[in-house]
Amino acid sequence: MWLRDSANQILSYLPVLRPSSNPESLAALFRGVINAHSRYIKVTPYCHAYPPPPESGFSSPMNGAYHQNKVHMFGKQGYDQKKTFDCKWELDSLASFLQISSEYYNATRDLGPFKKYKWIETVEVILNAADAMRTATYTSDGHIAESGYTMTGRTDRATETTSNNGLGNPVIWTGMVRSTFRPSDDATIFQFFIPGNMMFARYLEAAAGIMDVMDTQRSRDLAVSMRTMAAEIRAGITKYGIVSHPLFGAMFAFEVDGYGSQVCYAVSCFTGHRTLILCQNLMDDANLPSLLSASMMGYVSSRDEVYQNTRLFALSKANPYWAFGEVYNAIGGPHMGPTKGWPLASIVRILTSEDTSGEEMSRELREILGSTDGLGLVHESINSWNGKDWSRQW
Q: What residues contact residue 176 under an 8 Å CB cut-off, 6+ apart?
């Protein structure tokens, strides 16, 4: 079970979620996912994928990456591969737990799952894990600061490991949380992954509302801590995560380090050729959370000027992972490589569209429907010039 994927799968049914104590109900399924996530996060908060629980009766598959990766969490090496399938620290995994928790409560007003399942303890684990990943690389006297998580991998893919013996590229204190990997499972270049921090701040704030309603001294104190961390993350994004682009103006960077570097692979704009220009290091990726999804997750208004500028950038040839061609046009990412557009990004484009004519949404739907290679299924990615070259039929 991937925390992010399982949360997104069940959140698709949120519009029809209703309060119910029936164990066969959709509400019970939501509660089950919240319970499973809560259990897994307390085992290893920096990991993102877990085997079936023992009571399921399903066998636990072993991940070959366990023997290729060297993971340290809170100074201790390794993790129990019987309890954890894969261990890549992706901030959005913890944000997904907060999201499904708050969305369930807002839809049902049912406090039951949050008084059980040791939910409060899980939130405390999340706060501690996140706080340990907000440290700067260096202490005030120039030593290497302790890090909650480090990882190196034996691999021939740069996106499957990290620099500096697992520490990643250096950062300063910004208030944001470092994320070693992106939701695509690709390693970050600069550790302050902006979309992940947006999502984490947004759902820290939302889940703090559950703490308010529980109304105990412990929950009230946690609500304050959650809102304080969210405010510091937001301040960090505003100070370090908004950059000036020569064509698009003020926009969100994809990743930053606090030193002034922002991740993007600078390219020419609107020429049809990818000629290197002065680098502002900007990009967007199809996987969620993304910069394109910032309004969809409720971090900013869809009419926010910085977001609008970012959206224009992400959906243009200025984005180095904008796949364009005769067959498909959409944001992709390094996980599948250049020229591979993702229908997931097209769907997010539809959901964030402010085009009152409906033309943008209709165009994207036509491309999605016309890209199934006769299978009638939405693929993971599609070659922008060859509709028969796709990944995962789904």
A: 134, 192, 197, 232, 233, 236, 237, 240, 241
pLDDT at 77: 87
* d(C-alpha 7, C-alpha 97), whole Å: 7
Q: Are 121 and 226 in contact (CB under 8 A)?
A: no
385 three-state secondary structure: coil
Rounded Cα–Cα distance for residues 111 and 116 (Å): 9
Note the pLDDT of residue 332.
95
Would you state the pLDDT for residue 261? 64
- Domains belonging to the chain, first-starting first, are 3-240 (1.50.10.10), 242-391 (no CATH)
Instruction: Return phi, psi of residue 250, to 5°.
Output: -70, 125
Note whether 318 and 249 are within 8 A (CB). Answer: no
How much of the chain exceeds pLDDT 70, in percent? Answer: 95
Count Cα neighbours of 210 within 13 Å in the Cβ-side half-sphere.
26
Sign of CA dihedral 31, 33, 38, 43: positive
The amino acid that residue 329 corresponds to is N
Does pLDDT of 156 surpass 90? no
Q: CB of 120 within 8 A of CB of 218?
A: yes
